[in-house]
């Protein structure tokens, strides 16, 4: 379409958000009224999956349309390859006003994900310091986005915008400021816990993980943790509600494609008996559906003239996001992108996508995982310093993902599919070493020991 018809894009990535804690995905507790309103104007993908469970590789895929082996960012702390083009570069070169706002160090300039953003800001939230918080501490990123948008709305001369807004608040530690800290339940003060040597603080992710893994966490704390997680979601939802309202009141909402998704889910005390993963909480049970199933809500612009929106059940991947946005905005989809545009299923909700399988891949802390999810099967292959292991799950007969299925023929078939996929997507793994500054920041954030 002509430039004047090009829609704005607001891409909102909510770190660590499980779809089943949003009202539009059937959650009972009132965590997300604003996203619920947005969903009424949107396509809601019921079965969307991420390609990676660490924020760096996962976001790099959402912003490039490539798998981690192709964009080169396989673990938090690495950088995308120099030649990798980002969605922001494509849009910026076509005259868009581009702005990026991130809340986590591994997505900041060192990741290369700032490429193509004319303005790019990193607003960390206080993650592991549980003294009395000011709400302002947690709202810096939202305020920055709001400020940028207000400035854009007031400008006389303007191009369409592409904003990427990454929100870190929901990520552990779950420690929302008032009134969200006790909106969904009373939360215990820090206290002594039998078998725990320091004072135990439910709001500290490290305390929680230690007590949970040691088997000394009293059950009532689980409800409190979930209440805190839901409080973080509601804080984020209220802030997004204000942004959506200002887009509406300034007449910009209808001209804007809004996409909301998360980089990965979270294990909230689910227990997996297969022995393949480290025990949760967090997202260390990496390729269970609780970790890879993500929300994906996509509101088209008025110019796209969709007659209906609604829930779609096709299995889709975060690698499909870039081709989908490019097609909606009237750009050619580059031949090298492995994902597929979801516009055809948005136009014809009953049509099938060509793939019917989801692939995932990343290399957290030097351990490489590759895997496939189909309607019935999930296969995870792990390579740790030359030692190989794998997990095969029958999702239909073992939906809780507790057991490794004993089907050697299915394992062979899945290994062959992975081999083909690697060949097709030109796996060439050359990654760069993490910088010292990144290492320090990840340690301070509690990500590295």
Structural class: alpha/beta
| Number of E-state strands | 12
Low-pLDDT parts are: none
With helices defined by DSSP (H or I, 4 residues minimum), what is the helix count?
A: 12
| Radius of gyration from the alpha-carbon trace, in angstroms | 21 Å
Cα(first) to Cα(last) distance is: 51 Å
Helix coverage percent: 25-40%
Morphology call: globular
Strands across the major sheet, in which order?
Answer: 4-3-5-1-6-7-2-8
Q: What characterizes the major β-sheet?
A: 8 strands, mixed
Strand content: 15-25%
Mean pLDDT: 91
From N to C, what is the helix and strand string? EHEHHHEEHEHHEHEEHHEEEEHH
Provide key terms for this protein.
globular; 12 helices; 12 strands; alpha/beta; 449 residues; 8-stranded mixed sheet; 4-stranded antiparallel sheet
């Amino acid at each position: 379409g002509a430039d004047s018809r090009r829609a704005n894009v607001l891409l909102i990535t909510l770190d660590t958000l499980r779809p089943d804690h949003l009202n539009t995905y059937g959650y009972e507790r009132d965590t997300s009224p604003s996203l619920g309103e947005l969903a009424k104007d949107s396509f809601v993908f019921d079965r969307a999956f991420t390609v990676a469970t660490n924020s760096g590789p996962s976001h790099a895929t959402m912003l490039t349309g490539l798998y981690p082996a192709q964009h080169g960012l396989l673990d938090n702390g690495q950088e995308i390859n120099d030649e990798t083009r980002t969605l922001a570069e494509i849009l910026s070169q076509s005259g868009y006003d581009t702005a990026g706002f991130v809340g986590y160090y591994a997505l900041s300039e060192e990741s290369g994900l700032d490429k193509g953003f004319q303005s790019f800001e990193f607003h960390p939230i206080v993650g592991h310091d549980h003294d009395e918080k000011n709400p302002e501490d947690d709202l810096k990123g939202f305020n920055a986005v709001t400020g940028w948008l207000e400035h854009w709305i007031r400008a006389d001369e303007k191009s369409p915008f592409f904003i990427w807004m990454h929100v870190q608040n929901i990520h552990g530690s779950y420690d929302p400021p008032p009134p969200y800290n006790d909106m969904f339940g009373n939360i215990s003060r820090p206290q002594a816990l039998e078998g725990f040597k320091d004072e135990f603080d439910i709001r500290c992710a490290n305390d929680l993980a230690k007590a949970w893994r040691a088997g000394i966490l009293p059950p009532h704390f689980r409800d409190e943790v979930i209440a805190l997680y839901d409080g973080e979601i509601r804080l984020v939802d209220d802030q997004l509600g204000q942004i959506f309202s200002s887009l509406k009141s300034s007449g910009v909402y209808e001209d804007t494609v809004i996409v909301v998704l998360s980089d990965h889910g979270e294990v909230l005390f689910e227990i997996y008996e297969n022995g393949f993963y480290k025990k949760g909480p967090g997202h260390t049970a990496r390729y269970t559906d609780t970790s890879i199933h993500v929300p994906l809500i996509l509101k088209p612009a008025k110019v796209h003239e969709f007659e209906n929106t609604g829930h779609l059940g096709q299995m889709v991947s975060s690698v499909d996001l870039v081709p989908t946005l490019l097609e909606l905005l009237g750009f050619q989809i580059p031949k090298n992108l492995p994902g597929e545009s979801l516009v055809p299923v948005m136009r014809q909700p009953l049509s099938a996508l060509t793939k019917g399988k989801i692939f995932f891949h990343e290399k957290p802390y030097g351990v490489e995982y590759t895997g496939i999810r189909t309607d019935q099967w999930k296969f995870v292959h792990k390579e740790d310093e030359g030692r190989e292991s794998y997990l095969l799950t029958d999702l239909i007969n073992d939906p809780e993902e507790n057991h490794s299925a004993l089907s050697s023929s299915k394992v062979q078939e899945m290994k062959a599919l992975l081999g083909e996929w690697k060949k097709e997507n030109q796996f060439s793994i050359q990654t760069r070493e993490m910088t010292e500054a990144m290492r320090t920041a990840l340690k301070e954030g509690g990500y590295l020991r």
